Amino acid sequence: MFKKILIANRGEIACRVIKTARKMGIKTVAIYSDADKQALHVQMADEAVHIGPPPANQSYIVIDKVMAAVKETGAEAVHPGYGFLSENAKFAEALEAAGVAFIGPPKGAIEAMGDKITSKKIAQDANVSTVPGYMGLIADADEAVKISNEIGYPVMIKASAGGGGKGMRIAWTDEEAREGFQSSKNEAASSFGDDRIFIEKFVTQPRHIEIQVLCDKHGNGIYLGERECSIQRRNQKVIEEAPSPFLDEATRKAMGEQAVALAQAVDYASAGTVEFIVDGDRNFYFLEMNTRLQVEHPVTELITGVDLVEQMIRVANDEKLSMAQSDVKLHGWAMESRLYAEDPYRGFLPSIGRLTRYRPPAETESYSPGVTPSAPVVRNDTGVYEGGEISMYYDPMIAKLCTWGADRAEAIEEMRLALDRFEVEGIGHNLPFLSAVYDHPKFISGDMTTAFIEEEYPDGFEGVTLERGALARIAAAAAAMNRVAEIRRTRVSGRMDNHERRVGTDWVVTLQGESFTVTIDADHEGATVSFDDGSNHRVESDWTPGQPLAVLMVDGAPLVLKVGKLPGGFRLRTRGAELKVHVRPPRQAELAALMPEKLPPDTSKMLLCPMPGLIVKVDVEVGQEVQEGQALCTIEAMKMENILRAEKRSVVSKINAGAGDSLAVDDVIMEFE
Amino acid sequence: MKDILSELEARREDARQGGGARRIEAQHAKGKLTARERIELLLDEDSFEEFDMFVAHRCADFGMQAQRPAGDGVVTGWGTINGRMVYVFSQDFTVFGGSLSETHAQKICKIMDMAVQNGAPVIGINDSGGARIQEGVASLAGYAEVFQRNIMASGVVPQISVIMGPCAGGAVYSPAMTDFIFMVKDTSYMFVTGPDVVKTVTNEVVTAEELGGASTHTKKSSVADGAFENDVEALAEVRRLVDFLPLNNREKPPVRPFFDDPARAETSLDTLIPANPNTPYDMKELIHKLADEGDFYEIQEDFAKNIVTGFVRLEGQTVGVVANQPMVLAGCLDIDSSRKAARFVRFCDAFEIPILTLVDVPGFLPGTSQEYGGVIKHGAKLLFAYGEATVPKVTVITRKAYGGAYDVMASKHLRGDFNYAWPTAEIAVMGAKGATEIIHRGKSPEEIEAETKHYEDRFANPFVAAEKGFIDEVIMPRNTRKRVARAFASLRGKQLQNPWKKHDNIPL
Prior knowledge:
The complex is a heterodimer of chains A (673) and B (508).
Chain A: E1 4-7, H1 11-23, E2 27-32, H2 40-44, E3 47-50, H3 63-73, E4 77-79, H4 89-97, E5 101-102, H5 107-114, H6 116-125, E6 133-134, H7 141-151, E7 155-163, E8 166-171, H8 174-192, E9 197-201, E10 207-215, E11 221-233, E12 236-242, H9 249-265, E13 271-278, E14 284-290, H10 297-304, H11 308-316, E15 333-340, E16 342-343, E17 349-350, E18 353-354, E19 357-359, E20 377-382, E21 389-390, E22 397-405, H12 408-421, E23 423-425, H13 431-438, H14 441-445, H15 452-456, H16 468-489, E24 506-511, E25 514-522, E26 527-531, E27 536-541, E28 549-554, E29 557-566, E30 569-574, E31 577-584, H17 586-592, E32 606-608, E33 613-618, E34 625-626, E35 631-637, E36 640-645, E37 650-655, E38 662-663, E39 668-672
Parallel strand pairs in A: 1-2, 1-4, 2-3, 4-5
Antiparallel strand pairs in A: 6-9, 7-8, 7-9, 10-11, 10-13, 11-12, 12-15, 13-14, 15-22, 16-17, 18-21, 19-23, 20-22, 24-25, 24-31, 25-26, 26-27, 27-28, 28-29, 29-30, 30-31, 32-39, 33-35, 33-38, 34-37, 35-36, 37-39
Chain B: H1 2-16, H2 21-29, H3 35-42, E1 49-51, E2 74-81, E3 84-91, H4 102-118, E4 122-126, H5 137-153, E5 159-163, E6 166-168, H6 173-176, E7 180-184, E8 189-191, H7 195-202, H8 208-212, H9 214-220, E9 226-228, H10 231-242, H11 283-290, E10 297-299, E11 307-314, E12 317-324, H12 335-350, E13 355-361, H13 368-372, H14 375-388, E14 393-402, H15 403-408, E15 418-421, E16 426-428, H16 432-439, H17 445-459, H18 463-467, E17 473-474, H19 480-490
Parallel strand pairs in B: 3-4, 4-5, 5-7, 6-8, 7-9, 12-13, 13-14, 14-15, 14-16, 15-17
Antiparallel strand pairs in B: 1-2, 2-3, 10-11, 11-12
C-alpha cells in the first residue's frame, strides 16, 4: 500500500480523502493557494505545500505546480478529488510519466468519456441506451414524420443552429411533427439563416439518475446502485438521494448492467459515475460518464457500507475488488443536502465573507465511511470552520450534510432536524431553502423532475410560510421560552424587597401575522401551554436565555429553533421560516395591536448596494435615461469589481454615492423615477 | 360613607380619562399611545403609584378657569421595572396638547426631587406641544425649575428621556441634560425652532421630520441615543436598558443570574484579525463573543460608527464597552467619535460601571475639517474622560494602537487597571512606512523598503510595549472573555479617588 498520497484539491473533498487515508494508515499531503493558508484541509493533512496565488488557474489546476509538490514530498499517489484536475488526461499522463499512481481511471478512459460525441458513440456500441435521434439532414415534412415515428413520440424538433428555444418544437403526433418541422425550419431560416433541422426523442418528466460503478484493473466491475439528483438549480445539484424513489429493481439492474458495460468498454478502473436521464415511463438514456469521485458519493456510501475513497485507493494500488455484484446490498435510505454560500433571498447570489458562526449538527460518532448504519446517521462533509473565510475564488459549496434512515421518511425527518440544528452566520446561505424542499409535498412524495425548482419556485425563494398548526407549536415553545427569560429578568439585583415583579401566566404570542392567546402552566419538567381554543401543547426543554439554538420537545416531538433577539421580542428560525415573535401579556398585546403596521420602504425604484464594498465609479448622471442591463456603477468588493446594471428602463433621479465611497449592504446608491 | 368612597372613584375615573375619548382616539390614530398606556408598558404590571392625580392649573386668563382637567397634562409617580424602583413622568398630549404649565412643571419637579432623595432613576416620557402660552412666564419658570433639577440629578440618578411626540423650543433642554434620549420613528421630533421659524429666518424649507425626526437626531446631530419603530418597542427597550443601569451613584451596577460560561473559549477569535493589516473586520463580532449570552445594548449605534459604545454583562454584571470599529474610517478617532465615546465613558464613571476598551486605532483623522472643527479639544474630551475615570478599566488592544490615539484609548498611562494585547497588536508611534520615512529621510526607496521591514519586525508587535510594562500581558484571542471577566472580577473592590475639587474643567 502507498505510504503517502497527495490530494490535489481543497475544501471538503480534500478533507474527505484525508479522513480515509488516515484510517488506512497513509500519510497525506495537502496543497494550498494563498487564499487557503489557514484552510481546514491544510490543518488536517500531515504535510502541506503552497502552490501559488488564489485563482485556481494559477494554483490548483497548474499541472507543473502540482507535480512539483508531488516530487517535493515524495508522494506515491495522487487523489484528484472532483473538479480541478480530476478529469484531466494530461495530468494523469504527467503522473504516469513520473511513476506516480493516479487515484482515478486510466487516461484513455478519461479521454474517451471526456468528449460528448465520442462517449455517446461508445455507449451506443456498448448497447447502452442513448437518447434516440436523427442527426442527418431532413429533406421535407414527410421525412420528418417518418423519422419521428421511428424515434417514437414525443419528439423534439430542433434547429441545428438553434438556441434559446428558438426554432424548437415538441411534437406528440404526426400532424404536430409535420407542422413543427415547417415552422421550425422557417424560424430557423429567419433567425439564424440556417434552416437545417434535426429530431430527437423528447424526454418527458425527466429525472437525473446516475449509477455508481466501481472497476478494478483486473477486469472486474460492479455497480453500487443509483443516486437521484433531480433537485437541481440551473444544472447545479442541490439535493441528492440514494436510492431513487422512482426506480424499480428491474430498471436498476438494467441501468447498472449497462453502466458497468460502458465502463468496461473503456477499460475503466476506479470509481466512476454514469449519468442517465430517465423519463416518466422509466425509459432511461445515457447522458455522460463522470470519470471521478462524485460530489454526492456519500449517499452511496451510506446505503452500501462501502468507502468509495478507500476502494479508489485500493484499485490504484492494483488490488482486486474485494466484492462481487452479489455482495452489493442496498440498505436504508440516504439524503444529501449541499450547503451553498449563496443567498436564497437574493436570487442565490454567491455570498462571501467570514463565517462568524459555523456549528454543524453533531455527526453520528459510530459512523464513518465503510460502515453499514443500523440507526439514523448524520454525516457532514465539510471544508470550513467557524472563523474561517469564504473566498470568491472557489466553489460556493461549503458542506454536504447527509442523513441516513431505515426508509426515506426517516432519512427526510433526520435531515429536517439536522438542517434546523445547522448554525451558519456571517454569510448568506441556502439552509432555509433546503429546509423548504424537505417539507415540499412533491418532494415528500418522491414525485419530482429536474424542473422541480424551476416549476415550484418560479419567482425565486422568499422563505417559508408555516401553516397554523406548525405556528401553534412554535408559539407554545416561544411562550415557554419567554417565561424563562422574563423570570430571569426579575432576579436582577437591587429589587425592592417584598415588591418584586411576578411573571404572569397569561400571554399573547404573535408571529407571522397570527396571534395566539395562551396560558402557561409550568412545572419542574417543562410547561403545558393551553390555547384559548381549548387545545394545548406540552413543551419541555433545557433552553436558557441567550442560547442561540433551542432544542425543545413539543408534545414529545422535537422542535429545533434558532433564536435571535429583536427589539422587544425573538427572531426564530426553523424549517426554512424566519419569524418575528412577540410574547406579551394580554394588556400589552392589546396596546401593541394599536401600533400602525409600518411597511418596509419601497426599494423597487432604488439601486441598493448588494455587498459591502467601495464604489469605483458611477457610470450615469442624474436625469439620464438608462436601458435595461445598462451599467450603472462599479463596486469593488474583496478585490473584485462588480458591475451593477439597470433592471429596467428608467430615469436616474438621484445619486447618493460617488467614487471612493465605501458602502454597506442595502445602502441606497441611486434612485430612479 | 359609601358616597364619599364612590366620589373618589368617580374623580379618579375622570382623571384617567385625560382629554377624553375623542382625543384619545385621535392619539391612537396617530400611532401613539396615551400617557397612561405608556406607563403601563414601561412599568411592571400593577406597580404604578400615582402622585398628584388631582392637580389642576391655576391660570385664570383667557377663559382657562373654565377648563381645569385633573392632572394638568402630565401623569407622574413611581413604580418598578423588574422589581427595581423608578420614577416616571409621562406627558399627556390629550390634555392641552401636553403643554407645560406651572403646575405641570411642579408635578415633574416633585418626583424628580423624590428620585434624587430616594436614589432611583427618572424616566421622562415627552409628548408636549410646548409651553402653556396662556400662562406666559409662569410656564417658562416651570421649565427652568425642571432644568435645574435635571442638572442636580445628573450623575446622582440615571435620567432617561423618551421622546414620543413633539418636543420643541425650550422643552428640548430638559431631555438634552438627561443621560439618554430615545425617540420613536415617524411620530416624534425635537428642535429648538420649528420649520416655520426656520423658513422665516433662514429661508430654508425643511419638514419637521427632516429638521428634528428620529433619523436626524440618531444619525446627524447625535442628540438622540437610539430610535425605535413604535411606542411599544421603545418602552420594551427602555426596560431592557434599565436592567443594565444602577439605580443611583451610590450603588454598584446590577447583577443578574447568567447562563454563560465565563471561561467560554472562542477559537474563531484567533482568526478575527485579517492577514492584511489594511483589511477591516467587524469589532462587534468581538463584543458579541465576549459578552454574556452575546447580549449587547448599543448606544448611539447610528452615529460616529467608527467607535462603538454600549453595555454588556460579564458574569452577570454590567460593563460599559468602548471599541474602535475598523469597518468605518479604519476605526480612527475624530471629532464625532471622541465626543460620543467621551460622554459614554463619563456616564459609566459617574455610575460606577466598569469600562472595557477594545482598541484598534490608526490615529486621529487628519484634515482641515477636523482641525477647523476643533479636533484638538474634542479629542481631549475622550482623553480627559478616560484619565479622570476611577472605575475598573480593562483594555484589550487587538491590532493597531498608534500615536496619540494609543494614549487616549484607556492606556496604562491613564490608570488602566489591566492592559492586554493580542499577539496581533502593533503599538507604535505610527505605521511602519511613515515612521521609516521620517527616521531615514533622504534614503532611496529600496533602502526605505528594507528599513520599513526592519521597523515592522521591531515594532509591529505588542512585545516592545510589554517589555516596558505598558502591556500587562499578551493574551490569546480565543481566551479574551475569560481573561477580561477575571480581570473585572479582581477589580470588584477597586478604590481610587481623584483629588478634591469643586469640579473639573473638561474641555467642553
